Structure formats: structure tokens, C-alpha cells
Amino acid sequence: MKRNSAYIKGVFVIIALCFGLLAGFGQNNAQAFSNQVIQVGATGEDVVELQSRLQYLGFYTGNIDGVFGWRTYWALRNFQYEFGLPIDGLAGGTTKNKLAKASKYDKAWVNKQIDTGKKFSYYGGEKKSTKSGAAKGGTATKGGAAKGTKGTGQGQAKAKPAQVKPAKNIPNGYSQNDVNLMANAVYGEARGEPYIGQVAVAAVIINRVESATFPNTVSGVIFEPGAFTAVADGQIYLTPNDQAKKAVMDALNGWDPTGEAEYYFNPDTATSGWIWGRPQIKKIGKHIFCN
Amino acid sequence: MIRTILIVLLFVAVAGTGYWGYSEHQEKNAVLLQAENNYQRAFHDLNFHMDSLHDKIGETIAMNTRNQLSPALAQVWRLTSEAHNDVGQLPLALLPFNKTEEFLTKMGEFSYRAAVRDLDKNPLTDKEYNTLKELYANSTEIQNELRRTESLAQKNNLRWMDVEMALATNKQPEDNTIIDGFKTVDKSVEGYTDVDFGTEVSNMEKMKDRDLSQLKGKKISKDEAKKIAIDFFQLKKNVKITVESTGKEAKYDAYSLTLYNPETKGTTYMDLTKKGGYPLYVLYDRNVGKPKISLNEAMMQAEDFLKKHMESTMEMVTSDQYDNIGVFTYARLQDDVRIYPETVSVKVALDNGDIMGYEGTDFLLAHVDKRTPVFKISEKEARTNLNPNFQVKEISKALIRNDINEEVYCYEFLGTLGDDTFRVFINAENGNEEEVKKMKEAEPSYNDI
């Protein structure tokens, strides 16, 4: 492994010299990572760098998406094992130094790929060719093999403009689209309410999904005819603000200010007498929540 | 001349308006009809599914051979879920129809449990046959009532749109047939609330009926609640606190506190149990800036917080970063066993490490001071029950609630199969595979959320 990386390093320096990019690479090495300890679940640029470097060395085979998921975790642990480091799955000081020494990272190129949303990989050998091709179309590379890999790589990217935008953590059992739909419903139903009232409305939706007496999906609950006034009058199609999304995320992560309520109503506008008969739990903002 | 032109113009205007109005009217009718058709479809589907459900339950009672019974019960399960789905598409939200929906869910659960069970080893008991008979009788009633409603609706050309309008405006519709029909169905189901669905289904009920009466400590007053909150957050005097009590019929007796801090301009919401004054949840609402600390540092903050406020030893089970927020879940650790039902969540702001939230309801509901772990089989024996392709990476002990809501001690194997990561729980008493959980990878952003 060590000899291998030394070889890669050597090849790299030569090519870097060719392109006159030596200064750039030197900088990259010196400024590897910020000084945070990176752990499972983290997102952001450091994770992109971690994934890129692990992929450069062949440990990480997933998408470079900026989220420290399980695949990154196992890749990091393999790296720690191979390099004789304590295997804890945390990217701390020594791990990061070892990683920075063993691999190269071209931040600008990786970030550019992420921004354009193309599918890309960052393996040690193949990377250079893809990179030079992307950076300057004019400067032709020599190696035929390198050209070949580049061709297939780009062909794929064109045929399938798959978006590898930075991914997001979403609470287990739900998708980003569920979050959006719920944010729409919360915004339509409770945009004038205090924050806690919005979390409460989102929590009621989740309580209903889990309840035996309501449909079992987020969309089923939200679009149940007559269940929400915002659905009936079309306010659900307004564009939700960030606060509504935050409220939904809190509710999905388990916060339930309602005490497991399945109904709520606005006492000023409620027309149904039946709803008043439900056992009331508490009032949050303008809404009364009940069982 | 001018007069003629004016008259012509006026005529054109009137004709144009008339045409416009007519086409609008047509369009509106088309849309209404579309909605009506959807309701009609769901209604007739519901009737069809209830019909087949009724027949299928009847068949299961008459059946004798086991290899016939399992598929028939699986059919019952499927039909209950179809029927439940149909109900969800009808405008019944404002009508008391939940007894029927609950009944359908329980019937589905009951038939599913029986269908997946090895009926050769565990044949249906007499009690379960009785349950089936009762279900049959009940579904007869539901079917008859729905059929009657359906035929009357067809005969009198009743429209679901009218029902919806009537329910939404709380006015009496001209013809009450549909509403009355559904009310009768729900009434008839009420008569069957004491059907014995067996321990597995009633375990679900028990989970729903948990409350906080087992908590230690005295009942606290509103003023004591305030004091607890001030201690909890180490607040200064200038914070405005309002305390409200939950309603009499709330499942969890609690005080809801709202704390406004004029210095930080942040509002904190908190619920404290009346008995003992334990925090159910805390939510702090303020604007969080760009992340400045790492998820790891945030975790330290969360752990400090838990050490300060909880007596139990907690171990982190998940950590996730949502832009500028870190959310951590902790399970209680006792004798190296992770007690998964007793979890708390902590939310930390990544701009300065403030604790933004705490959720402890599940912990309070499930908490038992001292559990006695039972591990009859060894780790090695448990391992033999794993899928041979599964690569084990980490092993620990755990207590989980399985799919029939029983608490079971398990060996927890964290590992990979292909590119995916799984948590596999093997029962520590009999070696059964209790649960296999696929660990979610981050979802690519198809769009910005």
C-alpha cells in the first residue's frame, strides 16, 4: 500500500510539474481539512474532502456527496486499519494528517463537479485525466488509456445527467419529498402561528400516519378529503418558508409538543360541533389540540 | 351611424360575456364531476372490498387444511388494507367513522399475524376461531349497511359532493342517506369493541395506553414548575415565564411553559410532567447562523447536557447534521446493554453549541429503574443465525421492542452486505432474527429543500 501511494505520488508530481500546478498542490496539502473532528452524520466541505481522499486511495467507492454516511464510515475504518491507526471511525487529528499525506485532493475540481451536478469519481489513477480534460479542453493528454477512461466517464455523465448535488440527511423512514410535502401543509395550515404551533401541526400529521384510524402515509393523511382546510382551499400549494421546514424536521426527529394529539381545530372558525366533543389536550397558539 | 356601431359593439360584448360565462360554467361542472367521480369510485371500491372481505373471512372459518388457511388469511389482510385505503379517500374526516377504521386495522393485524405464523406447529386456537366468527358477524353487518347505502345512493342519484359540502358547512343536507349509513356502520362496529384480537394486537393497544403515572415524585404546582425551569436553564430573573396546564383529558398530565428571554430574544418552550416535574420536551426557537463548530463538538455539548440533567448513563446511537443543526439520539446503557426503548434526543445549534431541544417523552414512558438482562445463548451461537453473506463489524447487546411490541434482549450485529449497512438483532433467548434494519444512507438532493 505504502509503496503504491509513493508511486502515485511520484507520478503526480511529474504531471503537476508538466502543468505548472505544483504550487497549487503544495497548498492543498498544507491546508488539508479544517481542524474539526469529523464524525458519522456530519455534512459539509470537510466531508467532501474526506470522501475524496478516501476514494483517491480506493477505500471509498460511493458517491462523493458531502454526507458522512455508513459507507464513508466503513471506508474510514478500513483506512485506519490499513494504516495502523486506532479504529474508531472518527476523522481526528492523526487520521486526517495520515490521510492528507497519503492522498491528493484538488478542492476546486471536486467542488466544480459537485456544482455542475455531474456524476464523477476521484480515484487515484483515473482522476488526473478527467481533471485535465475538464479544466482545459485544449491541453491534450498523452496517454491513450487515460483518454479512454475519460471518454467513458464523460459519456455516462452526458447520457444520464444524474444530480450528485450535495446530499442531505433526512430522518429515518422519510424522504426529502415527504419533508417538502409536510412543510407545504404546515405552512398552509399554520403560517401565522408561533414556531411551537407549527411543530405541533407537523407532529399531528405524524401521529396520524402512525395511528390505526388514519391512512398510513404522509400523503394519505394530508390529502384525506376534508382533513385539512389548507388542502381544501389550495393554500397547501403556497411556497413554504424555512421556518415551516425547520418545524417539520423537528417533528420528524421526534419532538411532539401536542402530547400525541391527532386532531386540532381553530376555535374561532371551527364549524363542526363534533370536533368540540373530542377530549382536549392543550391550546398552542390559536389551535386547540385534542385526541 | 355611430348608434349602429354602438349597438353592434354592445351586442358583441353581451354575446362574448355570455359565451365566456357559459364556458366557465361548463369548466366548473367538469371539475366538479371529476371530483365526484373520484368519490364515487372510492365508495364503490369500498363496497366491493368489504364484500370480498366478508366472503374471505367466511371461507377461513370453513377451511380445515393449513396450507389453504394461510393464503386466505393473507387475502383478508390485503383486503382490509384496501378497504382502509378507500375510506381514506372519502370525505369522512368530519364524520365519526374512526371506530370502523380502527376495526379494519386490527382485523388486518390479526389476520397478518395468523397468516405469517407456522400453522402446522401453532394451529389456530379455539379462541381465535371465535374471534374469526365474531369478525365474520361484524363484517356481515358492515357489508349489509354499506350495500343498503350504496343502493339508495344509486336509486336517488345522491352525490358525494353534496355530502362533502354539507359536512364542511355543517348544514343538514337534503338527503341524509349517505351520512346516516356511515354513522350506522360505525355504531354497529362499536358493539364489537370487546372482540379479543389476541395478545399480539392488544400489545399495540397497551403501547397507546401508556401514561406517566409510574413516575416517581410528588405532584408539583405551577410555581414549582417555574422554579424547575429556572434551575434547568440557569436563568436570570428577567426572563418572562408563562405556565399553562394541560387539559383534563390529556394523556400526559403536564405543565406547558413558555420562557421569553429579552436578552437573546429567543423563546423556549418546555413541558414538565405534573408528577415529579420531569421535562417531556424542550424546544428553543431562535435563528441559527452558519455552522461554526463541528458535529463532534456539538456531541460533547449534548453529552454535557445529558450528564447535568439525567441520572442514567446514556450512549449515543445516532448523530446527524441538518445544515446548521446537529441532532443526537441516546439510548440508556445498563450492564453494557443498550436499552433502545429508553431513548432521548438532543438538538444542538452548530453556530455556538447551544442546546436547542431535548425530547424525553419516550424515555419517561419506557423507563424502568433496574432491568434484568437475560442472555441465554452465547454471542457465537447467535452469530450462526445470521445470513452467511452478512459481514459483521460491530457487536453489542441490546434491548429492543420487536414487531409485536414485546421487549426482548438481543445481540445487535452491525455490519454490511454489499454496499449497504444493516443492524441485525438476534434474540438472546432463542436465536430468532427479531429485526433487520437497513441503515439509511443520505439521499441525494434532487432539488434544494
Automatic annotation (TrEMBL), chain A:
<protein>
    <recommendedName>
        <fullName>Spore cortex-lytic enzyme</fullName>
    </recommendedName>
</protein>
<dbReference type="InterPro" id="IPR036366">
    <property type="entry name" value="PGBDSf"/>
</dbReference>
<dbReference type="Pfam" id="PF01471">
    <property type="entry name" value="PG_binding_1"/>
</dbReference>
<feature type="domain" description="Peptidoglycan binding-like">
    <location>
        <begin position="43"/>
        <end position="99"/>
    </location>
</feature>
<dbReference type="InterPro" id="IPR036365">
    <property type="entry name" value="PGBD-like_sf"/>
</dbReference>
<keyword id="KW-0309">Germination</keyword>
<comment type="similarity">
    <text>Belongs to the SleB family.</text>
</comment>
<dbReference type="GO" id="GO:0071555">
    <property type="term" value="P:cell wall organization"/>
</dbReference>
<dbReference type="InterPro" id="IPR011105">
    <property type="entry name" value="Cell_wall_hydrolase_SleB"/>
</dbReference>
<feature type="region of interest" description="Disordered">
    <location>
        <begin position="126"/>
        <end position="171"/>
    </location>
</feature>
<keyword id="KW-0378">Hydrolase</keyword>
<dbReference type="InterPro" id="IPR002477">
    <property type="entry name" value="Peptidoglycan-bd-like"/>
</dbReference>
<feature type="domain" description="Cell wall hydrolase SleB">
    <location>
        <begin position="192"/>
        <end position="290"/>
    </location>
</feature>
<dbReference type="InterPro" id="IPR042047">
    <property type="entry name" value="SleB_dom1"/>
</dbReference>
<keyword id="KW-0961">Cell wall biogenesis/degradation</keyword>
<dbReference type="GO" id="GO:0009847">
    <property type="term" value="P:spore germination"/>
</dbReference>
<dbReference type="GO" id="GO:0030435">
    <property type="term" value="P:sporulation resulting in formation of a cellular spore"/>
</dbReference>
<keyword id="KW-0749">Sporulation</keyword>
<keyword id="KW-0732">Signal</keyword>
<dbReference type="InterPro" id="IPR014224">
    <property type="entry name" value="Spore_cortex_SleB"/>
</dbReference>
<dbReference type="GO" id="GO:0016787">
    <property type="term" value="F:hydrolase activity"/>
</dbReference>
<feature type="compositionally biased region" description="Low complexity">
    <location>
        <begin position="131"/>
        <end position="168"/>
    </location>
</feature>
TrEMBL record, chain B:
<dbReference type="InterPro" id="IPR014239">
    <property type="entry name" value="YpeB_PepSY1-2"/>
</dbReference>
<dbReference type="GO" id="GO:0009847">
    <property type="term" value="P:spore germination"/>
</dbReference>
<dbReference type="InterPro" id="IPR048402">
    <property type="entry name" value="YpeB_N"/>
</dbReference>
<feature type="domain" description="Sporulation protein YpeB PepSY1 and PepSY2">
    <location>
        <begin position="180"/>
        <end position="371"/>
    </location>
</feature>
<feature type="domain" description="PepSY">
    <location>
        <begin position="376"/>
        <end position="436"/>
    </location>
</feature>
<protein>
    <submittedName>
        <fullName>Germination protein YpeB</fullName>
    </submittedName>
</protein>
<dbReference type="Pfam" id="PF14620">
    <property type="entry name" value="YPEB_PepSY1-2"/>
</dbReference>
<dbReference type="InterPro" id="IPR025711">
    <property type="entry name" value="PepSY"/>
</dbReference>
<dbReference type="Pfam" id="PF20769">
    <property type="entry name" value="YPEB_N"/>
</dbReference>
<dbReference type="Pfam" id="PF03413">
    <property type="entry name" value="PepSY"/>
</dbReference>
<feature type="domain" description="Sporulation protein YpeB N-terminal">
    <location>
        <begin position="27"/>
        <end position="162"/>
    </location>
</feature>
